[in-house]
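Suppose a colleague, Dr. K., hands you the sequence of a protein chain of 221 amino acids and asks what its three-dimensional shape might be. Before reaching for any lab equipment, you can write down a predicted structure in token form. Begin with the sequence itself:
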Amino acid sequence: MAALLGLFRRDLRLALRQSGDTALVLGFFVLAVVLFPFGVGPEPQILGRIAAGIVWVAALLAALLSLDRLFQADYEDGGLDLIVLSPVPLELAVLAKCAAHWVATGLPLALASPILALVVDLDARAIPTLVVSLLLGTPALSLIGSVAAALILGARRQGVLLSVLVLPLYVPPLVFGAGAVAASASGTGPRADLLILGALSLGALPLSPWASAAALRLALE
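The predicted structure, expressed as tokens, is then:
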């Protein structure tokens, strides 16, 4: 446990020290949401109808920006070999790195979402649901993305390949995350969508580290 906490603190410290990655993710998130009203028009009814999808798509794409660095730095400097050879199970090490990635990217996106929700005229009643849905759904984005990040190690055109691999897998969190916000805005209740969204993150919790560890071992052979 001490080794896992140490790995988590190390990755989080590196992410905060190299604050450009977090700033890039937040900057893209803000710009993507702000640009939508210019593209679809400033009518509050139109924006309010698609606001949930706007914020969730922007958050999904913003989280995608930093995934290629999840294992790449350790792969290049040999740190990944040390992690694999350490007594700590590789699956748990992957889980610690995913947790650090979520704290550095997913959590800031969730905290910034209420302000951006006002930009796209989201119903104020749905803003708490938006934050909860992002807190429940962004861990699944980090966990699922870790599998694709492990698969592309050593490949050419990693950014394009990563997008092709991971975007289809991001559809379920996107559907239920945006659905929860839309249900809250319409007054029908977001409970079912939020439960499914949480189930997706819980399901990815044991499966994604196992798949990522297998892909990392293949990349190092």
